[in-house]
Each structure stands twice: as structure tokens, then as C-alpha cells.
From TrEMBL:
CDD domains assigned to the protein according to its UniProt record, in alphabetical order: FBPase
Similarity comment text for this entry: Belongs to the FBPase class 1 family.
Signal peptide: none
Keywords associated with the record: Carbohydrate metabolism, Cytoplasm, Hydrolase, Magnesium, Metal-binding
Record domain Fructose-1-6-bisphosphatase class 1 C-terminal: where: 204-333
Pfam families, sorted: FBPase, FBPase_C
Protein's name in the database: Fructose-1,6-bisphosphatase, cytosolic
NCBIfam families: PRK09293.1-1, PRK09293.1-3
Domain Fructose-1-6-bisphosphatase class I N-terminal, chain residue ranges per copy: 13-200
Enzymatic reactions: beta-D-fructose 1,6-bisphosphate + H2O = beta-D-fructose 6-phosphate + phosphate
Species of origin: Dendrobium nobile (Orchid)
Subcellular location: Cytoplasm
Length: 340
């Protein structure tokens, strides 16, 4: 009998056990982070179940604009936001919440106030919901030292994040997490209702064969972006062209980039000089994960995690992925800068 394989099947590393193990490395830890993460995991499980039922619910009239009682049914992104906000507040460990769905930040009052600031996009890629394409939740966690938290505590550079992750609702439900010590992937076993460690210590390949961008915006790109994409398609060094893959769901596109390598970009263009993606809960958590996996994340000017946002819903261009692929685009921007 293969004891190693058998141990792997029977000795299940759940995400809770994993985080508790990590916690035991910090003897002064009181378990607050584990409790917070448990509540995030609960939110992810709820959204996963709601996303799985969405197509069916529509068919039998449970979702949509109104149900048989004439009550308005909540859209999945609104519902997901409510679930996360409530789960985070009730954890008793948060002081500030910034959600893509809410214009203003939420400040948690005593007795539920804790020391973590959580920034999140409860259901990203929501234009993909109705056709059953992968969507996801993205989150980042900061520690707030001062008990009197202000909005400035949420406007910290991404490099100050304590942890970041995403949950992808795709052909399987996967939670990818970094607590600043590498990246680990957990897959939801629906029969157990538990996330099990399936992708330990994810490392992004040094270079990849895929580029991922909305090429429909090409007409408005700046020089370095246009040149980079041209080179993906018609490499000057005689290598094979890269393949294009673009889901249009950041979680799915970044997940593929993390596992297979390559580059994901949402650049600035003449119509959107700051790109489309949001700094706090899209750019930062994904950049944190990519760096932790050995890749790079760049804004077109600086390392993405060095950005200091001025507003909670600020946007930034982003180029992230395999170390060498991002290095190439950095060189193109540096060359353009030198010409000016
Ligand atoms: P959303 O937050 O409104 O869902 O928009 C974010 C999504 C990302 O998931 C994805 O990377 C991007 O928008 C795709 O944008 P586009 O359709 O412009 O290519
Ligand atoms: Mg979003």
C-alpha cells in the first residue's frame, strides 16, 4: 500500500487547521486572525452556494426581479455584499470595512470593534454571472494599530497588507490565500463543506506563454502597452507567439496566470487614464498574491504595492504575472520615460 498517498487522502489539511498551524508560530497571537478568516471563509461558502444555485433559481423563479410573493429578490452581488459585511462585523475583529459595493467605508463600533481593516470585492466579475462564467471574491486585510480608526487606516499602501486572498467560484470553488508567507490554494470539498489544502506553496512560473488583456481597448493604449502586446503576437527574438486568454473576470484571469504563468494586464488608455481596476480591493490583493508567489506587479510607473491610495475606490493600471514577463513591460515603460 502507498502510505504516503493514503496519508494524503486521510490527513486532511483544512484551511482552519492550516491557519491555526500558522498562528502557533506566533506565540503572542490570541487567535483573532483565525476568527476573522473563519468568517471570511463562511462568506465564501455562502456565496459559492448562492452562485451554484443562481442558474437554477432563475429557472424556477426564485431569483430575478420579483418572486411569487411579489418581494424583490436581491441580486447576487448585493446579497454577497450583505453576507460579507455581516460576517465581518459579527466576527468582532474588524474596525473598518471597504467594499466595492458600498460608496462609503463602514466603521464598526464597540463592542464588536476589533483591530483589522478588511477591503473586499464581494463578487467581482458580476457581468459574468448570468452566463455561468467564473466569478470571485477578492479580499485584503490590514492591521490597525490605533483603536480610533480613521479612513487613513484603510488608505495604506498594499505592501502593508497582512494577508490577501481570493475565492473563485468556477468549475470548483477555490480559495487562494497568502498571510505573507507564500501562497496556498484550498479547494472546497462540497461533501465536507470544508476547504482542503490542494495547492500548497504555489509558485508562479518565471515566464509564461499566455497574455491576458481586453484587446478591444487597443485603439486607446499608450506606446509601451501597444508595443508589449505586439511583441506577444510577433516576437522579435524568433520565439513562439504567446496565446491570448481573457475571461473578463479578474479572479479567473489572475488564477490562471498564477498557475500557468504569463501576464495579466489592465492598462491605462486614453479613455481611462487610471485603467479600470480598483486599487484597494482588486489591484492590491492580487499584487500581494502574485509577489508572494514569486511574480511581479507593476502599475506602469511603480511597484503596485507601493501605491498609496488617496480614495477608497481609486483605480490604477496594473500589469501582473510571471517575473520575467512583467520585467519586459517595465523595461518598455522605462525606455519610454527616458525618451521624454
Ligand atoms: P466589476 O468589479 O464591475 O465586476 O469589474 C471588474 C472586472 C474584472 O473582474 C475584470 O478583470 C474586468 O472587470 C474586465 O473588464 P473589461 O470588461 O473592461 O475587460
Ligand atoms: Mg470588481
Amino acid at each position: 500500500m502507498d502510505h504516503a498517498a493514503d496519508a494524503h487522502r486521510t490527513d486532511l489539511m483544512t484551511i482552519t487547521r492550516f491557519v491555526l498551524n500558522e498562528q502557533s508560530k506566533h506565540p503572542d497571537s490570541k487567535g483573532d486572525f483565525s476568527i476573522l478568516l473563519n468568517n471570511i471563509v463562511l462568506g465564501c461558502k455562502f456565496v459559492c452556494s448562492a452562485v451554484n444555485k443562481a442558474g437554477l433559481a432563475k429557472l424556477i423563479g426564485l431569483a430575478g426581479d420579483t418572486n411569487v410573493q411579489g418581494e424583490e429578490q436581491k441580486k447576487l452581488d448585493v446579497l454577497s455584499n450583505e453576507v460579507f459585511v455581516k460576517a465581518l462585523i459579527s466576527s468582532g475583529r474588524t474596525c473598518i470595512l471597504v467594499s466595492e459595493e458600498d460608496e462609503e467605508a463602514t466603521f464598526v463600533s464597540p463592542p464588536l470593534r476589533g483591530k483589522y481593516c478588511v477591503v473586499f470585492d464581494p463578487l467581482d466579475g458580476s457581468s459574468n454571472i448570468d452566463c455561468g462564467v467564473s466569478i470571485g471574491t477578492i479580499f485584503g486585510i490590514y492591521l490597525v494599530n490605533d483603536l480610533e480608526a480613521t479612513i487613513d487606516d484603510a488608505l495604506q499602501p498594499g505592501k502593508n497588507m497582512l494577508a490577501a486572498g481570493y475565492c473563485m467560484y468556477g468549475s470548483s470553488c477555490m480559495l487562494v490565500l497568502s498571510t505573507g508567507n507564500g501562497v496556498n490554494g484550498f479547494t472546497l470539498d462540497p461533501s465536507l463543506g470544508e476547504f482542503i489544502l490542494t495547492h500548497p506553496d504555489i509558485k508562479i512560473p518565471k515566464t509564461g506563454k499566455i497574455y491576458s488583456v481586453n484587446e478591444g481597448n487597443a485603439k486607446n493604449w499608450d506606446g509601451p502597452t501597444a508595443k508589449y502586446i505586439e511583441n506577444c503576437k510577433f516576437p522579435k527574438d524568433g520565439s513562439s507567439p504567446k496565446s491570448l486568454r481573457y475571461v473578463g473576470s479578474m479572479v479567473a484571469d489572475v488564477h490562471r496566470t498564477l498557475l500557468y504563468g504569463g501576464i495579466f494586464l489592465y492598462p491605462a488608455d486614453r479613455k481611462s487614464p487610471n485603467g479600470k481596476l480598483r486599487v484597494l480591493y482588486e489591484v492590491f490583493p492580487m499584487s500581494f498574491l502574485i509577489e508572494q508567489a514569486g511574480g511581479q506587479a507593476f502599475t506602469g510607473k511603480i511597484r503596485a504595492l507601493d501605491l498609496v491610495p488617496k480614495k477608497i475606490h481609486e483605480r490604477s493600471p496594473i500589469f501582473l504575472g510571471s517575473y520575467e514577463d512583467v520585467e519586459e513591460i517595465k523595461e518598455l515603460y522605462a525606455a519610454a520615460q527616458n525618451q521624454n
